[in-house]
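A common beginner's mistake is to predict each chain separately and then try to dock the pieces by hand. The better habit, illustrated here, is to supply every component at once so that their relative placement is modeled jointly.
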Amino acid sequence: MLGRVGAGLGAQKDLGRGRGGGVGDEGGDRPKRPAPATRREFARVGAGAGQSAAWLLGSETSGSLRAAGLGMTSGGSRFLWLLKIMVIFLVLGIVGFMFRSMFLQAVFSSPKPELPSPAPGVQKLKLLPEERLRNLFSYDGIWLFPKNQCKCEANKEQGSYNFQDAYGQSDLPAVKARRQAEFEHFQRREGLPRPLPLLAQPNLPFGYPVHGVEVMPLHTVPIPGLQFEGPDAPVYEVNLTASLGTLNTFADVPDSVVQGRGQKQLTISTSDRKLLKFILQHVTYTSTGYQHQKVDIVSLESRSSVAKFPVTIRHPVMPKLYDPGPERKLRNLVTIATKTFLRPHKLMIMLRSIREYYPDLTVIVADDSKKPLEIKDNHVEYYTMPFGKGWFAGRNLAISQVTTKYVLWVDDDFLFNEETKIEVLVDVLEKTELDVVGGSVLGNVFQFKLLLEQSDSGACLHKRTGFFQPLDGFPSCVVTSGVVNFFLAHTERLQRVGFDPRLQRVAHSEFFIDGLGTLLVGSCPEVIIGHQSRSPVVDSELAALEKTYNTYRSNTLAQVQFKLALHYFKNHLQCAT
Amino acid sequence: MLGRVGAGLGAQKDLGRGRGGGVGDEGGDRPKRPAPATRREFARVGAGAGQSAAWLLGSETSGSLRAAGLGMTSGGSRFLWLLKIMVIFLVLGIVGFMFRSMFLQAVFSSPKPELPSPAPGVQKLKLLPEERLRNLFSYDGIWLFPKNQCKCEANKEQGSYNFQDAYGQSDLPAVKARRQAEFEHFQRREGLPRPLPLLAQPNLPFGYPVHGVEVMPLHTVPIPGLQFEGPDAPVYEVNLTASLGTLNTFADVPDSVVQGRGQKQLTISTSDRKLLKFILQHVTYTSTGYQHQKVDIVSLESRSSVAKFPVTIRHPVMPKLYDPGPERKLRNLVTIATKTFLRPHKLMIMLRSIREYYPDLTVIVADDSKKPLEIKDNHVEYYTMPFGKGWFAGRNLAISQVTTKYVLWVDDDFLFNEETKIEVLVDVLEKTELDVVGGSVLGNVFQFKLLLEQSDSGACLHKRTGFFQPLDGFPSCVVTSGVVNFFLAHTERLQRVGFDPRLQRVAHSEFFIDGLGTLLVGSCPEVIIGHQSRSPVVDSELAALEKTYNTYRSNTLAQVQFKLALHYFKNHLQCAT
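With all components supplied together, the output reads:
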């Protein structure tokens, strides 16, 4: 019997060999399972147990027993055997109990021989090489994955701009410092950078709301989903702690059970599990102090288990809705806006073309020419500006005056025709989540995508022709980042972004860049507007005006440098391709 | 010895009495702890053990032993005793091991007797009455707690406005329907209403990110914190499922281990726990399709346990920073803006007062008077508008032209003096998170708080004089919701809210109401501006102008009704006090 037991133990010992290398090679945060050592231990103990058993039972020779002084009679020998067996089993039971976990592992895990090289079937812990990752997570050839540093690489298809080159070498350090200071001020007010993700540990005995608890400043909300499902205990003590607000419960319980009502820490002590559950179901969070855009981390703790969940303190943005009126007349839905400069003849041609199709739509005209115009049209609103104040200043002025839900932007040298169906653009914005939808100017849609890679020293912006995907519900339309200067927009959203009055001369994509994160842009090529001919006018006065105009349409080096510097500072960009 | 052991066991039995009733009285979802029964069992077993011990050891009479057939010699008797004791302990040990949990309960819990009626100390489950809740969670007498319906009650201190009264009875149903349609369109585009909170169940064997995982559209992010700490099993199968994006892992593993790479469902099957851990540490989420402001719920599942966590798809808002320049000249930081109408003399007096203290700050003037002015000042930008276009239209025009970080709003009849320290206001905005900081007009700060109760049929707005709390870092300043028309503001934030050009005549608080959720407003009474006298002018032409002006400053019933209707529709409000 001993032999068999011994053999059993010895067999255990064999399991001690062979768990292959590789596991734990990478080095990690879990201690190596000391497999062979444990098995050796196990074997040693087993052997020891066997030895004790042998000692207790004696060997074939009854010599040791006699040495131990046990005399025997034949009648007593049965009893002795019984005793021996009992003792053996007891000892084995104790040993087995103490080492049961190792035993289970040994029995149930697949044993692996210890070979110098990993056996087939053993998985090494390695990551995909960076090249594979780039292929997996790229869009339009740009690797859209978190990285410390992004790059703008020029190639055949596109150039690249490094924005800090727009500054003089000697100025650059001071500019960088100023930009960093302004950026941090901006971040603080936007509640950025967002805090690191809050991680839940496994096997927490708590239920709690992972996401979605929001409270207005000074308001109170009930916290849903709080539960405690830990082991039974004589007394349960559960603590809740907040920092930007106070906690309470609307369970009606005495102060001996709940302490800290209306404080930052609420403590529940009770031996009644049902009561604990009831109280937890009725915990409230009160945001104290008027604050904006904050996330409070509330912790729920009992003994050594802690769960944490977020409560967002946020004031919802006040809606700014527009009444389309009982008949939904286009006049109450859409205002046309444009800016003009030294091109009064073109403006008038454009206005006349509008009136052919839309006799009563309000047209807002911002004009920074030298001489004010006299426009005899009851539905034109005319604004004058300081001379040459600028392109985007004028655009911003015009949209600032709109009182309808939508605004249609047109340039002063466009030409309405029978394909210029504003109603189609209205339909698209009414039925989708787009903020802006562009049409086509004489077949030219000028769609471009903007892709952004963020990094600490400024983002890398990539501009690519084309679109992201078709627009849901409108198969001939697409979703993109930028379009032509013929578009319908939600007035409220357009005003939220605005046209930067610092851009005085040539500018276009800057508006869409400023709109990233705020505007969802689409394009519907089947809505077409015409463009007036670019051939020079005959009239000498107008020709003189046009000549002056053209000087302002230049894009000088100084102006280009100004715009690059603006991207660097204002938009916190590093470079673009 | 047996006696003592038996007494010990018997003493345990005594502990079986006395634990009070009430536990489990309420009826719940947990089975009653079968306390007394267990103790009787334990006592029985203990007695049994005692009996076996007695049987093994014999009583004082060595009779039973002899019956068992153990003969003894005097030298062997010591050994026998040793053996007996060992056996007793072994048996007790086994018994103790098998019943350890019951034993621990018996020793450590306080026993309670089972009584028919609840004893004192048993907590009934009831909630605080609504009155108590109102007291607990009120601010300025307004109950800031979620409710289905809010109310505006007039009293001695304030009146109340019910906004739908501004509409004719017959129009109201159609207006309500239109407002609801516009509101839903607005909500959709803002990603509202936010989804219900995501609740985590207790004792999930998973680690996962509760909050904070964000990804830009089309980008990929690694998901932090994924863990599986479930029971050992021969094979582990873990599934991850997303809906607005796809999942992958950058662990380099064969397809037999990970399936569904780049799909909406990722399945990991392995018997290697370390490998599972490694893969989970390197899971990625890719947002597919260009979309804004969405929350994807990703689920992590193994066998029957499921954890869910949110991934927010969001494009960060593009910064709009302003370079203050190397010397931080006030001219590069602040632009003054004002609007004027039929009060050119007052405007000129105001301008002259500015120049006394600030000779080179840019002043933007929006003018919707009949005749344009000629202002000989190199740093004044002058804009004309359609006649009587309106107060807020002019304000919106003026701020649309600002190119500096801050804009100082002043009315055209103010008067700068030596206490009008713009630098102090700049300092406040530079060092805090305020978006707007008001000063005092001849000692009048006009601070008011705006409190909002949301409800499905429109929010209830409560306006109260005063402030919320002092401003951190500026003890003489406060945080509030509205101030006078003398304030410094972040240009970018001010433009984001804007002045609604639909408000043509008398209006003030509407701007701050529109700003709720976007603007953080403060007030610093020590920065004072003067106000020109209201006494009528002598000059006849100016007097005529003033007369015309005053007719526009009226607040007729029709105008009041217009503004109430605007609050109803545009701001989706129900009423105000």
